[in-house]
């Protein structure tokens, strides 16, 4: 009953691997290390380095590791960059998923948890996003994630594949001091890296129609996210019903200004962020309800904003000069 985590050497994937271990579920990892770090994979976990575009490698991995289910996290995750690199984005997120699903079908692996994205919603016109909110992705990245959900639904109709997709927003924090976010585009790594270099972080726009003028988003702790993946895998494994899509949201949201205040408090570094112009396409508020996931997956926000910042900062400090830039 081995679960294969694609992208299991990445920031999110490595936390999912450890959550599976804590749940006593056998796990293996496949990752091309384009953004992941091999050191994030525990030494006792079987690790295959390679791309999901390599159909022979994927089939061989499924068979040799006796895989019965897949948690598919691997992908190109940078929405802004995807606008400049649409073909690369579709290759990594759509072509690779087609290859994976074909290999699963050939190897009779019929369970998958898909790491989708809130980018499928684009700029919603509601205060609180639910699973029934219309999807209007505004980037190749968001489009590719939505196509991934369609691929699962179509394959399920044809083959009986059991699946669910988890849509989430901004993942932060660390569940272990040796695991950290290495993304050059995410808010926490950007701010921490600037503080580490003695520079002043910035806020992109403070004139939005929000309580403090800065954008409001869902920020969820990576360890909470990992538990939701494990809960989804358990339900599939037990043959229990699942929804095709779950939102993993806070229901309330946090502003960028509130994030900066929490970072200042936790790090002890006294700074006042500079205000830069708005970034094109940034909506004022995107916040999701997590009620459906709470009902089926035990989803809840177990960590406060300070917990998120403190755990991420501790991991960043531990990485020190070894942190990839």
UniProtKB/TrEMBL annotation:
Pathway(s) served: Carbohydrate metabolism; galactose metabolism
Q: What is its EC number?
A: 5.1.3.2
SUPFAM superfamilies assigned: NAD(P)-binding Rossmann-fold domains (SSF51735)
Q: Which reaction does it catalyse?
A: UDP-alpha-D-glucose = UDP-alpha-D-galactose
Q: Which NCBIfam families match?
A: galE
Keyword Glycosyltransferase on this protein?
A: no
Keyword annotations from UniProtKB, A to Z: Carbohydrate metabolism, Isomerase, NAD
What is the name of this protein?
UDP-glucose 4-epimerase
Recorded GO MF terms: UDP-glucose 4-epimerase activity
Gene name per UniProt: galE
What is the enzyme's main class?
Answer: isomerase
What PANTHER family does this protein map onto? UDP-ARABINOSE 4-EPIMERASE 1, UDP-GLUCOSE 4-EPIMERASE
Q: Which InterPro entries match?
A: Epimerase_deHydtase, NAD(P)-bd_dom_sf, UDP_G4E
Q: Which Gene3D superfamilies match?
A: NAD(P)-binding Rossmann-like Domain, UDP-galactose 4-epimerase, domain 1
**GO terms of biological process kind:** galactose catabolic process via UDP-galactose, Leloir pathway
Question: What's the family?
Answer: Belongs to the NAD(P)-dependent epimerase/dehydratase family.
List required co-factors. NAD(+)
Q: Which domain of life is it from?
A: Bacteria
Species name for this entry? Mycolicibacterium hassiacum (strain DSM 44199 / CIP 105218 / JCM 12690 / 3849)
């Amino acid at each position: 009953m081995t679960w294969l985590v694609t992208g299991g050497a990445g920031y999110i994937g490595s936390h999912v691997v450890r959550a599976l271990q804590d749940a006593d579920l056998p796990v293996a990892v496949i990752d091309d290390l384009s953004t992941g770090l091999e050191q994030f994979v525990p030494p006792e976990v079987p690790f295959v380095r390679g791309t999901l575009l390599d159909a022979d490698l994927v089939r061989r991995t499924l068979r040799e590791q006796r895989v019965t289910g897949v948690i598919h996290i691997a992908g190109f995750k940078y929405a802004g960059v995807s606008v400049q690199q649409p073909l690369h984005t579709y290759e990594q997120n759509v072509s690779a998923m087609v290859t994976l699903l074909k290999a699963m079908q050939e190897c009779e692996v019929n369970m998958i948890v898909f790491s989708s994205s809130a980018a499928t919603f684009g700029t919603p016109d509601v205060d609180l996003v639910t699973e029934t909110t219309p999807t209007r992705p505004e980037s190749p990245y968001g489009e590719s994630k939505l196509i991934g959900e369609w691929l699962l639904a179509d394959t399920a109709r044809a083959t009986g594949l059991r699946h669910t997709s988890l849509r989430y927003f901004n993942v932060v924090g660390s569940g272990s001091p040796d695991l950290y976010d290495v993304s050059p585009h995410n808010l926490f790594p950007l701010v921490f890296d600037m503080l580490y270099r003695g520079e002043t972080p910035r806020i992109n726009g403070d004139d939005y129609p929000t309580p403090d003028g800065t954008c409001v988003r869902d920020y969820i702790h990576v360890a909470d996210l990992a538990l939701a993946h494990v809960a989804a895998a358990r339900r599939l494994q037990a043959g229990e019903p699942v929804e095709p899509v779950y939102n993993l949201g806070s229901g309330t949201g946090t502003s960028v200004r509130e994030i900066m205040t929490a970072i200042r408090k936790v790090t002890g570094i006294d700074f006042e962020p500079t205000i830069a112009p708005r970034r094109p396409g940034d909506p004022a508020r995107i916040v999701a309800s997590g009620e459906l996931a709470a009902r089926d997956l035990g989803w809840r926000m177990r960590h406060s904003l300070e917990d998120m910042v403190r755990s991420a900062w501790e991991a960043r400090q531990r990485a020190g000069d070894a942190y990839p830039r």
